[in-house]
Write a structure and sequence with these properties.
Elements lengths: L10 E8 L5 H11 L8 H10 L4 H13 L2 E6 L2 E6 L8 H8 L4 E7 L6 H12 L4 E6 L8 H12 L2 E4 L2 E3 L7 E4 L4 E4 L10 E4 L6 H6 L2 H17 L5 H5 L3 E6 L8 H11 L6 E2 L5 E2 L7 E9 L8 E9 L2 E2 L3 E4 L4 E4 L4 E3 L4 E3 L2 E2 L4 E6 L8 E3 L10 E3 L3 E7 L5 H14 L3 E5 L6 E4 L3 H14 L3 E5 L4 E6 L3 H10 L4 E3 L5 E5 L2 H10 L4 E3 L1 E3 L5
Parallel strand pairs: 1-3, 1-4, 4-5, 5-11, 6-11
Antiparallel strand pairs: 2-3, 7-8, 8-9, 9-10, 12-13, 14-15, 14-23, 15-22, 16-21, 17-18, 17-23, 19-20, 24-33, 25-27, 25-28, 26-27, 26-30, 29-31, 29-32, 30-31
The structure holds guanosine-5',3'-tetraphosphate (G4P).
């Protein structure tokens, strides 16, 4: 008797990282189309356009409304379930992106062929590297004039200190664009119609000297392709699955999301080589393996304001182990309470559905009234917390100014709620003055003002503070820590979990105070594991 393979082995949970405008939205749409998840082009496109018009909060709100339904996009293709987790495009919401990356097993890095590695790509890449997430590189827009293929490969290799392994090659770029050559599968992917038109067929070829290529492609383009392939084979690493899985090597595909080149290659590659759900580290040195029978999962994102009239939220839970069934009671470890998950949601590109059953790698949406926070762990009873979800030191700090002092309670509740969603961090100064909020990007401040007004009928403003950054403080000796806090009461505040934070006036001060207090640790990130 043969036993069926565990369902989680057919799951591929991944995200796309890129600098704005590199083509993430277009590629997302094309992946969904290829997977049969959307019927017509345009759904995701509309979102991209909206996102670009981000001059005021109304538009952010619109974007949020749209991105809610597409935070997770699940589709099935040839027996593989793809869970594509969306990440916000705007860098001011990068914390959200970082946390989403804790819930994926692989990432596609989209690079614009004309621009190479840009700032946001690099930052996001570093987060992937910290977690050893395997990266597949997609060099997009080769239908436009771009940089030389070898130059792009060198840049990825040098800028990211990563081995690159070219999997396909562009056959010309810009006005000379004929398609994509896949030397491994011996395919010439090209258009039926005019040169550079949308991808329609993969023609089998014996090699670069195949008459199909020789007869259609300009001589100079073919000469360049031939040189690329030759130099590519000699100068770059051969694809090594192990090195890829360890995050040391990135396979590179050239393509054009707009014209469908390279899209199928990515899905085929993910099916064949991207990892099935991996183990998840947890407290106490525990490692949760996907084939364990009991259900565990963690919240990597909370989306509120689905309906502004209700304070309902959806917690996005990535399952780590077990087989989840609708109606299950799970232990919400932080609160020490059991919750019945009676209406879990699956997210498809165009619709949502009640999730009857889910497996490791899947993401379910759990509606709740604010009990579930980013970082929370759900189990069948075990007292563990999934680790590895960071909170980052804020780069912008502001003191809250309240117009109507009668509304302190509502303001505090609102800020606490938004902090639990992961939108802002709050710092409560020891000496009783108004709370300070910390964000990574200024745009988040507008969102806070607007949401407090609409959802908590509380008008607030922000004042500048003399602080430029914050660090979580810790010390092996609690007495020493207490002494340090007492000696620096003006600069110490408590975060939303009452963990002490030092507010610094400058980077110089960070170094100075650090050097003067070698026993105290000043941390730029903190695990958001809540152990009360
Ligand atoms: P993003 O989500 O990473 O920000 O990028 P998005 O997909 O929105 O793409 C940014 C721009 O690049 C869009 O053009 C899009 O059409 C274009 N683009 C994406 N992929 C390709 C490609 O493979 N080839 C070419 N030539 N262009 C590509 P736009 O003019 O800003 O928007 P739109 O008017 O086309 O919607």
């Amino acid at each position: 008797m043969t036993t069926a393979a565990a369902p989680y082995l057919a799951r591929r949970t991944f995200a796309i990282i890129s600098h704005p405008d590199a083509g993430k939205t277009t590629l997302t749409e094309k992946l969904l189309l290829s997977g049969g998840a959307i019927r017509a082009a345009g759904q995701v496109r509309a979102r991209g356009e909206r996102r670009r018009a981000r001059s005021d909060w109304m538009k952010i709100e619109q974007e949020r409304g749209i991105s809610v339904s597409s935070s997770v996009m699940t589709f099935e293709r040839r027996g593989i379930i793809y869970n594509l987790l969306d990440t916000p495009g705007h860098e001011d919401f990068s914390e959200d992106t970082y946390r989403t990356l804790t819930a994926v097993d692989a990432a596609i890095m989209v690079i614009d062929a004309a621009k190479g590695i840009e700032t946001q790509t690099r930052k996001l890449f570093e987060v992937c590297r910290l977690r050893d997430i395997p990266i597949i590189t997609f060099v997009n827009k080769i239908d436009r004039e771009g940089r030389h293929a070898l130059e792009i490969l060198d840049e990825i290799q040098e800028a990211l200190a990563l081995d690159v392994s070219p999997m396909t090659w562009p056959v010309g770029m810009g006005s000379d664009f004929f398609g994509v050559y896949d030397g491994k599968k011996h395919l010439f992917c090209t258009s039926d119609g005019e040169r550079g038109g949308p991808y329609t067929q993969a023609k089998p070829v014996t090699g670069i000297d195949d008459p199909i290529l020789v007869d259609t492609v300009f001589d100079r383009v073919l000469a360049e392709l031939s040189e690329n392939v030759e130099l590519g084979e000699a100068g770059y690493a051969a694809f090594d699955p192990e090195s890829f899985l360890e995050g040391h090597l990135t396979p590179v595909f050239f393509g054009s999301a707009l014209r469908d080149y390279g899209v199928e290659d990515l899905l085929d590659f993910i099916a064949e080589h991207a990892p099935a759900p991996h183990s998840q580290p947890a407290t106490g040195g525990r490692v949760i393996a996907p084939d364990e029978p009991d259900v565990t999962g963690f919240v990597f994102k909370v989306q509120a304001n689905m309906d502004p009239k209700h304070r309902d939220r959806i917690a996005f839970v990535r399952l780590c182990s077990g087989t989840f069934k609708r109606g299950m009671r799970l232990k919400h470890v932080r609160a020490g309470k059991s919750i019945a998950v009676s209406a879990p949601i699956f997210f498809f590109a165009e619709e949502r559905e009640i999730a009857e059953e889910a497996f490791p790698g899947d993401v379910i949406g759990v509606p709740n009234h604010g009990q579930l926070r980013v970082g929370d762990t759900l189990t069948e009873g075990e007292e563990i917390h999934v680790t590895g979800l960071p909170a980052f030191a804020p780069e912008v700090l502001r003191r809250v100014r309240l117009s109507d002092t009668m509304r302190v309670k509502q303001m505090r509740q609102g800020l606490q709620d938004l902090a639990e969603e992961g939108l802002v961090q709050i710092f409560k100064p020891d000496l009783g003055s108004n709370w300070i909020v910390g964000v990574v990007g200024m745009l988040q401040l507008d969102v806070v003002i607007d949401r407090l007004k609409n959802e908590y009928t509380t008008e607030i403003g922000f004042e500048t503070v003399p602080y430029t950054t914050a660090r979580w403080i810790e010390c092996a000796d609690p007495l020493k820590l207490q002494k340090f806090i007492e000696a620096n009461r003006m600069s110490v505040a408590l975060d939303r979990d009452d963990k002490p934070v030092f507010l610094f006036k400058s980077n110089w001060e960070v170094n100075y105070i650090g050097e003067k207090n070698p026993d105290i640790g000043f941390r730029e990130t903190r695990e958001i594991v809540h152990t009360h």
